[in-house]
Specification:
CATH topology: OB fold (Dihydrolipoamide Acetyltransferase, E2P)
CATH architecture: Beta Barrel
Number of domains: 1
Helix content: 10-25%
Number of strands: 9
Strand content: 25-35%
Low-confidence stretches: none
Number of helices: 3
CATH class: Mainly Beta
Amino acid sequence: MNRFSHAVSLVVILGCEQSSTKWPEPIEDTKSELIEVESIRPGTRPRVIDGARYFKAPEIFDLDRPGDPQLSDKPWVAVEGTVRHSFDRFGAPCVVLKCDDCPDIIDCEGMELGKYRFQIGQTVVIRGQLEGTRSLVKSRLIAQEEIDEALKAED
């Protein structure tokens, strides 16, 4: 071996040694920092919550028809349903709601939903802007306290 080969070998060895000593940055466990979601209580519901019309999940499926005179172009709605699952879609938190007595689902997407840990089977109300067919964008969770306040305001 000549001096050039020794130098190349030394560079390769040092390069390998340096790369093997680099440790990846630890990934933060953000799941433990999530807020546990509580199911809403059964009972009377208000007609409007935070400026959004209230619907149970099966009722919303009739509203995404174009030209519905009751709705604006992309209305704000509050939908009550059962959590089917939650996930991230390209970095955007999503919750899928289903109705108890039909196979249809409502896809709810919004950065606010990323703060919570949803459990399958929970009954929740999510407020969002109706977009397209059976999906809500800019969604956020409605707490039981907000439902109670809206009921008091209607009395």
